[in-house]
Fold this sequence. Notes:
alpha+beta, globular
Amino acid sequence: xxxxxxxxxxxxxxxxxxxxxxxxxxxxxxxxxxxxxxxxxxxxxxxxxxxxxxxxxxxxxxxxxxxxxxxxxxxxxxxxxxxxxxx
Length: 87
């Protein structure tokens, strides 16, 4: 099952939606695509999908801007990346 790294962005999204942050650094989710990973995460933490869809992410170290349809392998590691602010 792909692993979803619980980084500062996910901790912020989880707590902003009023949920308790998991006691682990990585959640194992039974997903075969980014779309299904977001859906499964949102089933556990309702209201988080919108924030996740707006974020860039890395799959096995490769960064994607629009990865909603990307497939995942059983041993994939997924990390959502916060947007950089600047100007």
